[in-house]
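Annex B. Sample input.
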Amino acid sequence: MGRGIDIARVNAPEHAAVLDDFKDQLLVIFLKRLKRYGDDLIFPVAETDDTGQDLVGFSIRDAAFHFQVLKKD
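Annex B, continued. Sample output.
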């Protein structure tokens, strides 16, 4: 993950920086929402290591981000 941002760093470093900031903001939002619903914010290392077959996709509709977790082909 992140290869697209790494590629952008060469020709469009300002775009890569915006994407890095966006990812940081999303992580904060996701964790705050989990906490609000009472979920523990504990993630086993094995669970994070087991994400190689997954992708995150999103679209913007009605002034809101809509996220999906998808499987790689």
